[in-house]
Amino acid sequence: MSDTNFVIFYVDKPAASAAFYSALLQRPPVESSPTFALFALDSGLMLGLWSRHTVEPAAAGRGGASELAFTVADANALNRRHVDWSLRGLPILQAPTDMDFGRTFVALDPDGHRLRVFAPAPQEPAAAQRASSLASA
């Protein structure tokens, strides 16, 4: 089976979205045209921004129905990212909060796509021990 290594967001203004993500990700796109921009992320994932006006077949939906998730090391890193993104003017849909999977917050890009940042919950010692035992088996 082939790898899943691209996520494509349909955007209203590709150049404006490319500028937004270039600043947010602190890197330029690896490919750019009037209707499309492509970013290579450190994880190997490629993030494409395609004009909703030129994509074929035509896109029916809008942003907000899915999320692009960014993992950070811990709650302190998450809180720093929240402050950074807030200062950049990103709308914050969910303030930092603790959930069953860890600490998280959600921001929105200019097209309403959800950007979730999360720090996985620390494993309890017993769970970490079981995971270690399974890995060595």
Protein described:
The structure is a single chain. The protein is α/β, with parallel strands linked by helices and 137 residues long. The chain is 27% helix and 34% strand. The protein has two domains: 1-54, Signal recognition particle alu RNA binding heterodimer, srp9/1 (2-Layer Sandwich), CATH 3.30.720; 66-124, 2,3-Dihydroxybiphenyl 1,2-Dioxygenase, domain 1 (Roll). The protein has helices at residues 14-25, 75-87, 125-136, and strands spanning 6-11, 31-33, 36-40, 46-51, 67-71, 92-99, 102-108, 114-120. The two termini are 27 Å apart. This is Phenazine antibiotic resistance protein EhpR. InterPro entries: Glyas_Bleomycin-R_OHBP_Dase (IPR029068), Glyas_Fos-R_dOase_dom (IPR004360), Glyoxalase/dOase/EhpR (IPR026275), VOC_core (IPR037523). Residues 3-120 form the VOC domain.
CATH superfamily of the largest domain: 2,3-Dihydroxybiphenyl 1,2-Dioxygenase, domain 1
Sheet having the most strands? 4 strands, mixed
Give me the count of strands. Answer: 8
The CA-CA distance between the termini, in Å, is 27 Å
Domain VOC: 3-120
Protein name: Phenazine antibiotic resistance protein EhpR
InterPro entries: Glyas_Bleomycin-R_OHBP_Dase, Glyas_Fos-R_dOase_dom, Glyoxalase/dOase/EhpR, VOC_core
